[in-house]
Amino acid sequence: MPQLTHAQTPTIQISVINESTVLTDAEVTPVVSALQKQVTNDFGPVWGTAAQLTIIPKGTQPPTGSWWLVMLDDSDQANALGYHDLTTEGLPIGKVFVASDLKAGTSWTVTASHELLEMLGDPNINLTVFVQNSNTAGTLYAYEVCDACEDDSVGYEIDNILLSDFVYPAWFESFRTEGSTQFDRMNKIQIPLHLLAGGYIGTFNVNSGSGWQQQTADRRPANLLHRGSVGTRRERRGIPHELWINSLPQKKIAGNAQKYRQLLETIQQRREAA
Questions:
Q1: Tens digits of per-residue pLDDT, 138-159?
Q2: Could you give the CA distance from residue 240 to residue 232 in angstroms, rounded to a whole number?
Q3: Residue 8: band (very low, low, confident or very high) from pLDDT cuts 50, 70, 90
Q4: pLDDT for 224
Q5: What residues does each domain of the chain span?
Q6: How many CB atoms lie within 10 A of CB 232?
C-alpha cells in the first residue's frame, strides 16, 4: 500500500466544545483562531499532521467522526457532565480545565494549546520512545510533545494569544548532539530529552517495576499538578485502554450541564443569603 506523504495527510476534524462556566464562547473564539494558525503554520509542517478546528454552538451535536477539545471548569465538572476518556464514538478527546488553571494562576490558553498538540501528536496516549541504557536496562519516555517545555514562561503568542511551546521530533532522538538541530519551536532546548524549567516528562523504567513516573526539570518528586487530574492525558496513560470510558451522548451532556449550572446558581444564592 502506498505511503501517505505529509501533503496527503488527512485533515483531522476537531470539535471545540465550551462547557466551562467561566468562559463565554466569545472568549473562546479568538483562541480557537490562534490555535488553528499554530497547527497549520507551526506544528503541522514539523509533525506531519493537519487539523481543522470548529467551535460547536451549545446544544449542537459535534459532527460524526470528529475529535473533541472540551473546555471545562475542572475534573469534577467533567465527571458530572459525562465527559470521560473518549468521545461517544471512541475517538480521541482532550480536556482543558479552565477554572483549575485560573485558580493555579496559569494560562488556560497555553493549556488548550498543550492539550490540542499532544492529542494530535499521540492521540491514543500509547506512544513511547525507548532509550536503552545497557544490555539489560532502559527507560521509556512518553511521546508527549509539550510536557518538556510546557511552562507559560516559554510559550509564544499568536494574535496576542499565549500558546504552548512544543518539541520537535529530534527531542526524542538521543543520538543528537548539542545544538545540532532544532529541538523545540522556541529553540530554548539544545540537547535531546532536556527539560526546561517547569517542564516534566513521563518515564517508565523497564527494570524498576514502579510504573509510570513524572521526571521534573529539577529532579524533585512530582507534585499533584504533575500527577494530573482525573481524565487528563497523564492520568489516562497509566490506565489500561480497555478500562477507558466513552463520553455520554451530547444531548445527555447538555442536559447534565444545565443541571450543573442550576446547582451552582443554587449554591451561590444560599451563600449570599447566609
A1: 999 999 999 999 999 999 999 9
A2: 14
A3: low
A4: 46
A5: 6-243
A6: 19
DSSP 10-40: PEEEEEEEE--SS--HHHHHHHHHHHHHIII
pTM value > 0.85: yes
Residues near 203 by Cβ (< 8 Å), separated by ≥ 6? 139, 140, 141, 142, 212, 213, 214, 215
In 59-199, the DSSP E strands lie at 67-72, 93-97, 128-134, 137-142, 156-158, 161-163
As a whole number of angstroms, the distance between CA 102 and CA 92 comes to 25
- For the residues 176-197, what does the mean pLDDT come to? 97
Among residues 101, 105, 129, the alpha carbon closest in space to that of 232 is found at: 101
3-class secondary structure, 204: strand
Query: What gap in Å lies between CA 129 and CA 127, rounded to an integer?
Result: 7
d(CA 17, CA 5): 30
Strand 128-134 with 93-97, pairing: unpaired
* Cβ neighbours of residue 244 closer than 8 Å, sequence gap 6 or more: 84, 85, 86, 236
Positive or negative, the CA dihedral 112, 80, 27, 105 is negative
Give the C-alpha separation, 122 to 142, whole Å. Answer: 9
CB 67 within 8 A of CB 28: no
pLDDT in tens, 91-134: 999 999 999 999 999 999 999 999 999 999 999 999 999 998 88
* Residue appearing with cell numbers 451530547: 250
